[in-house]
């Protein structure tokens, strides 16, 4: 008999081939995408590889536009033509040969969705599983009695009677008189008589009316107080009595159209129903659709599932949440004219024992509900505004109402977005809205501690496993501070990237290629270790991980490092180094020099004291801020630091920047809650330099954005040839008819839509991609036509226009912030977030602005190499030296150590944050034991 353990030669060969394929590296030969100079790279499979290099050197061109694009394209090509039409179609990268490519997934730092219905819970699928959990094991609780709603049977009625009533308790089995199908009372009683049901009971007096003998007076019979009597019984725990009660209850259910009541002799009436109802209310039986705010069936009718309605803004009605009700928290009631409403509330509060001498922010839900909706003689804040609306014929009432207009929580669903019926269903004593309000950290504890019966475990065990698994990964990527109902369009690029990372971990795919774009963005150095461990776990289950990154910790953790350079743009695009981290330290590359300490960003010799003036925010309490007072010195470089989710953006963006903009009359959005901002008179203008694109059109470029193109067009229009031909500056623009090529309308390319393949972009036949008419291209300035100038790099253009100050002044700042490699005509849509931010910075540097401007920067080091950060710091210092002020939200230690003043927010993210941990110079912060930032600063100072 053959040995079963001996493998056949064929199976051994196939396993061996699979093993070799699994270990074969990814080989790229002759990559020429964008600025890559025909490079060859080898990436080991099932390893963590970091691609680094100066900004604009070609890292993303290699990782995303070459390797990921080819992996994605090959996978999509393998699908049916039907499936392909629904997927993003990728161009074939310009590369000679690629081998060993796996199906690829890109995790990029773009905000996942602009959809106002998309939340953290829906985008991670946690909310979908929670909906299923509530539909399957949720208990519907009556808001009237607080008891569980369920369909009753004779068995449940008997069980309740025997459990809750004493032996020999006497009772009646009844059912209500149901006047159906337009019948009159006399007709209904006649039908009952025919069935042999001839006794009625008045449940108030317990008098019995006999329909067979008594002279009927229909006026004395009221369906609300009279019931049809089926039987009179007493509680006896023997089989005969039990059987008789069961028969009587079943008769009552049958004849009462599913309803039966038990009237205890001299006591209360207990109502039962075979329908899903209780306490006179009919409820919907839970289904997954009922809990979906994206489904017309489940969404609240009033707000259509958005949770907010146009009406009265709570933050305008109660501007200071630290005030008490008696202390004037409700702004409209704090006037002699409307003080009556406050007195009415105080009377109700005394009767109901409501706390009115505690800050509004500490009031419980019930007190807030009464304050807003009213009770007894008090109309409520909503009632007050209804009174105001009823007097709209008076101008001052319309003015009063408009002062408090805005968006408020929906009054019907209380901002939970789902229909009322869904909020009656509870799991672990919470409804789905309360679960959605939890942070990911709290939700994880809630679901970990959830106790289920054996039956519930059988039904929901798998659902619970999926919820717990996803929450675990979100905690691991450091997002425990986000709430499940947080809108995804309010997340930062780094947060949405980490959500995608957690989703990828949850899918547990193996044999794939993951390409990540700077996953450490928005992460405090404290959380880097967690992220690195996650990427290693992705690698360890059998994936190849390729990361574009500048963070020293991430580079150190890599199995393999590829350094692209040596410089940016056309001076880059070469492989400077490929190998281990130790090898990189000893290499001649810029990255190696900075990592080994041979080159460094030096700590400033002295810290600027500032102008002596400052802006102070008092009582900032938006989101998780704990009513903090923060002073921002002016005339200095101020850095706001803290772990992710600690409240930095809420303080700087939503509170300080929004307040200044509102003061200048250019802000229409909501302003973060605060008690006041002092020192605004010292600021004449304000600029927010974030990473949004400088233009969404392919026509926008650095030359048009910095207005350098205006000067260039004037020069061409001023040439002798132009004057002879009658050309104006407009003829040298590719945006308007006149000089542009009309075949491609100045785009330089023509797009051809291909049904099942990627759209093809072909160089325009008419103009050859130059964007202009042939006659216009014959006009030359110093031997170059307008197309040649747009193809120049910023550095070359500065040399070319050396004696034209109007152009040089616009271009020199681009060189100063490290963007000398950009082409003047390079499309804005091809710029990275970091490049777009530096183009904006250059535009501000080019202005000769004498007004005192306050500049805000949101993580300006995104996508920047150490060498670029060094140049960026020079630009910041120049702004401060010109007399302006700079406030930066940042996690990068090189920027933090170079700041004049630091405001550290924390100590943790979410509920654990929102406090000022420390303020001072970097040296002072490094000495604060409670500061996570200080701990890391100590090492770099």
Commentary on this structure:
One of its GO terms (molecular function) is ATP hydrolysis activity. InterPro entries: ABC_transporter-like_ATP-bd (IPR003439), ABC_transporter-like_CS (IPR017871), ATP_grasp_subdomain_1 (IPR013815), P-loop_NTPase (IPR027417), UvrA (IPR004602), UvrA_DNA-bd (IPR041552), UvrA_inter (IPR041102). Pfam families: UvrA_DNA-bind (PF17755), UvrA_inter (PF17760). This is UvrABC system protein A. The protein has a six-stranded mixed beta sheet, sandwiched between helices. A six-stranded antiparallel beta sheet has the order 9-8-10-7-11-12. The termini are far apart. The chain is elongated, with a radius of gyration of 36 Å. It has five domains: 11-108 and 510-596, P-loop containing nucleotide triphosphate hydrolases (Rossmann fold); 154-275, Ribulose 1,5 Bisphosphate Carboxylase/Oxygenase (2-Layer Sandwich); 308-409, Orthogonal Bundle (Helicase, Ruva Protein, domain 3), CATH 1.10.8; 614-692 and 872-940, P-loop containing nucleotide triphosphate hydrolases (Rossmann fold, 3-Layer(aba) Sandwich), CATH 3.40.50.300; 702-829, ABC transporter ATPase  like domain (ABC transporter ATPase like fold, Up-down Bundle). Mean pLDDT is 90; it is low at 1-10. The chain is an alpha/beta fold.
């Amino acid at each position: 008999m053959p040995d079963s353990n001996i493998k056949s030669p064929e199976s051994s060969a196939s396993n061996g081939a699979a093993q070799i394929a699994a270990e074969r590296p990814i080989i790229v030969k002759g990559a020429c995408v964008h600025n890559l100079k025909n490079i060859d790279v080898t990436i080991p499979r099932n390893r963590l590889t970091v691609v680094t290099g100066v900004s604009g050197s070609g890292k993303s061109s290699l990782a995303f536009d070459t390797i990921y694009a080819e992996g994605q394209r090959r996978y999509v090509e393998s699908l049916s033509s039907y499936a392909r039409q629904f997927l993003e179609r990728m161009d074939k990268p310009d590369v000679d040969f690629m081998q060993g490519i796996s199906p690829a997934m890109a995790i990029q730092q773009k905000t996942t969705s602009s959809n106002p219905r998309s939340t953290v819970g829906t985008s991670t699928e946690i909310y979908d599983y929670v909906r299923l959990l509530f539909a399957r094991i949720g208990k519907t609780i009556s808001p009237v009695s607080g008891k569980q709603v369920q369909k009753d049977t004779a068995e449940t009625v008997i069980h309740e009677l025997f459990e809750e009533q004493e032996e020999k308790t006497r009772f009646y089995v009844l059912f209500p008189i149901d006047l159906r199908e337009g019948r009159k009372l006399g007709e209904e009683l006649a039908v009952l008589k025919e069935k042999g049901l001839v006794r009625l009971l008045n449940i108030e007096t317990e008098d019995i009316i006999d329909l067979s003998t008594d002279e009927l007076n229909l006026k004395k019979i009221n369906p609300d107080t009279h019931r049809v009597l089926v039987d009179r019984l007493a509680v006896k725990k023997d089989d005969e009595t039990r059987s008789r009660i069961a028969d009587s209850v079943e008769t009552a259910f049958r004849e009462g159209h599913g309803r039966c009541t038990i009237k205890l002799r001299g006591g209360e009436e207990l109502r039962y129903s075979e329908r899903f109802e209780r306490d006179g209310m009919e409820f919907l039986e839970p289904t997954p659709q009922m809990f979906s705010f994206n489904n017309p069936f489940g969404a609240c009718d009033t707000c259509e599932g958005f949770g907010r309605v146009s009406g009265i803004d709570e933050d305008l009605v109660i501007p200071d949440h630290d005030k008490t009700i008696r202390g004037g928290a409700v702004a409209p009631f704090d006037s002699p004219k409307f003080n009556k409403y406050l007195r009415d509330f105080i009377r109700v509060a005394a009767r109901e024992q409501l706390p009115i001498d505690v800050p509004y922010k500490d009031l419980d839900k019930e007190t807030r509900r009464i304050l807003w909706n009213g009770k007894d003689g008090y109309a409520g804040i909503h009632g007050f505004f209804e009174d105001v609306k009823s007097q709209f014929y008076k101008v001052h009432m319309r003015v009063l109402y408009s002062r408090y207009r805005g968006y408020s929580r929906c009054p019907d669903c209380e901002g939970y977005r789902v229909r009322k019926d869904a909020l009656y269903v509870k799991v672990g004593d919470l409804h789905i809205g309360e679960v959605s309000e939890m942070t990911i950290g709290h939700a994880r504890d809630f679901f970990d501690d959830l106790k289920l019966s054996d039956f519930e475990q059988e039904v929901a065990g798998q659902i619970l496993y999926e919820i717990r698994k996803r929450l675990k990964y979100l905690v691991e990527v450091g997002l425990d501070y986000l709430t499940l109902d947080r809108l995804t369009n309010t997340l930062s690029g780094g947060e949405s990237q980490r959500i995608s990372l957690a989703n990828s971990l949850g899918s547990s795919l193996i044999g794939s290629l993951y390409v990540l774009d700077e996953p450490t963005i928005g992460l405090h150095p404290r959380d880097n270790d967690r992220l690195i461990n996650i990427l290693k776990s992705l690698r360890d289950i059998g994936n190849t991980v390729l990361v574009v990154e500048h963070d020293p910790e991430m580079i150190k953790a890599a199995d393999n490092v590829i350094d692209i350079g040596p410089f940016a743009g056309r001076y880059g695009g070469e492989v400077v180094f490929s190998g281990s981290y130790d090898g990189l330290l000893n290499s001649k590359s810029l990255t190696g020099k900075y990592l080994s300490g041979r080159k460094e960003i030096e700590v400033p010799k002295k810290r600027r004291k500032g102008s002596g003036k400052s802006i102070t925010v008092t009582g900032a309490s938006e989101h998780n801020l704990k009513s903090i007072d923060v002073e921002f010195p002016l005339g200095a470089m101020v850095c706001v630091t803290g772990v992710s989710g600690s409240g930095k953006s809420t303080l700087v963006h939503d509170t300080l920047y929004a307040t200044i903009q509102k003061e200048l009359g250019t802000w229409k959005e909501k302003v973060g809650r605060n008690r006041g901002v002092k020192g605004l008179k010292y600021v004449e203008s304000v600029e927010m330099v974030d990473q949004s694109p400088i233009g969404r059109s392919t026509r926008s470029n650095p030359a048009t954005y910095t207005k350098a193109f205006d000067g260039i067009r004037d020069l061409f229009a001023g040439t002798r040839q132009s004057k002879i031909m009658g050309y104006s500056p407009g003829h040298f623009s590719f945006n308007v008819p006149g000089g542009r090529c009309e075949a491609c309308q100045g785009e330089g390319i023509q797009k051809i839509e291909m049904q099942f393949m990627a759209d093809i972009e072909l160089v325009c036949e008419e103009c050859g991609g130059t964007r202009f008419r042939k006659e216009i291209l014959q006009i030359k300035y110093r031997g170059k036509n307008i197309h040649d100038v747009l193809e120049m790099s910023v550095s070359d253009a500065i040399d070319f226009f050396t004696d034209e100050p109007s152009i040089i002044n616009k271009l020199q700042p681009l060189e100063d912030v490290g963007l000398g490699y950009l082409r003047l005509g390079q499309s804005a849509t091809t710029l990275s977030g970091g490049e777009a931010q530096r183009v904006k910075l250059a535009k501000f540097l080019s202005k000769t602005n004498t007004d005192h401007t306050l500049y805000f920067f949101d993580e300006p080091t995104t996508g920047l190499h150490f060498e670029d950060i060094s140049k960026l710091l020079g630009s910041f210092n120049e702004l401060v030296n010109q007399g302006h002020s700079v406030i930066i939200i940042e996690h990068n230690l090189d920027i933090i150590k170079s700041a004049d003043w630091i405001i550290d927010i924390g100590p943790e993210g979410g509920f654990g944050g929102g406090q000022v941990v420390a303020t001072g110079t970097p040296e002072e912060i490094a000495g604060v034991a409670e500061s996570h930032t200080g701990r890391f600063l100590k090492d770099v100072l």
